[in-house]
Amino acid sequence: MNVKRGRPRNMQTQQAILTAAYELLLETGFAAVTVEKIAERAGVSKATIYKWWPNKAAVVMDGYLSAASARLPVPDTGSVFEDIVEHAANLTRFLISREGKIITEIIGEGQSDPGLKEVYQARYFQPRRLEARQLMERGRERGELREDTDIGLCTDLIYGPVFYRLLLTGEPLDDAYIRQLVTAAFAGIGKMQR
User: Whole-model pTM?
Assistant: First the structure.
């Protein structure tokens, strides 16, 4: 039996902490955010934050994801091709927005902070990867993709170049590029009905 300790989270206090973490992240960047600054802005003690989150990275990522989740809806157009184009385009638009650019900073910080890297992989990237996987599995079930399609590899083929441009080359990321990218990937996947 799993017994939770302590009182349940006060939703207003939790939201105040998440909002403070997100605002500070946008204003100062990840490196300058501290649990002390979050607590001060939210009007709570550091102990309250540490009671609910193990470290700065966890509370900052939760604040970030709380604010960002509404901007990344999961499409259902009836076409796996169009679903992936829309999903990848939504993600890309977010990543190049003011709020989204924070993710590149967090990725950079994560290279020397294994705890942060673990948090952003688990709370941000894995859920996006799972969404893409589910979209492709739905397309496979509808017969739009071959039964033997390697969904993980397809996900890498489509989303990997987005992060390559975002983090390394700086080349443009726009809707036209995403459609071209998904078209090329789906041509390589094989059986695709549009």
Answer: 0.77
